[in-house]
Amino acid sequence: RLNVFVSSLRAWFNVDEFRASDRAFDWSLEDLRKLITAWYGGADLSKLHDLTASALYASVNEEIAVIIPHCWFPIVAAHEKADQDNIPLFGWQDDGWLDMVNAPTNNHKLVVDWFASMKKRGFRITEIGIDRKFAEQFFVGLKEKGFRAEDQPQFYHLKTIGFRAIETAARNNNLYYLGAEPFEYCVSNVQAIEKTDDMIIFDKIKPTQRIDVFDAAVFAACKAMKSYERRVKSGS
User: How far apart are CA 221 and CA 209, in angstroms?
Assistant: First the structure.
């Protein structure tokens, strides 16, 4: 209980704000597929034996932000990590938000396949952002599947754009993430420093925690915000 209390003092977000915003909407995946014509993707590819995450981000009428997350974990390490780091991996799996990788390490092809499956279901994915530095095979895999993928280095001044978009939407009750527990878990683990120029540097509160799902959503939100900026400048 003391650990939870200390962590809450250092957390940047109030996860209850996110939950309150999410409860204001009840669209299904099928509803969202029909409602939204442009989606943006992001991914946070982990070390070989840890949590990997992806996310789709879009908006309804340029106002309500929507996040669809998914994540993966190697089954060989899952029991140990779930117990040691207190991560409800198997609950996420039961609820359909996580797939166990049937191998000792992650397979980034599965993340590519997830984006491809969402595209096949009718989600029109415009662009996917990923830090190419440690994900060359993933980047190439996206290209082979016909996706427009863009290298997105993890510079804080770039990631601030996506961070602020998610933060603003949540605080204005304009964020919907389908009640995804992995996203809530990662949001509650974010600590951040606000610089004098309003830029944000963020990380996880403790080494044993994870923010990968939130990070993937930030990547996706950055792509969406950049696209919106281009449309405004072009007058379209």
Answer: 22
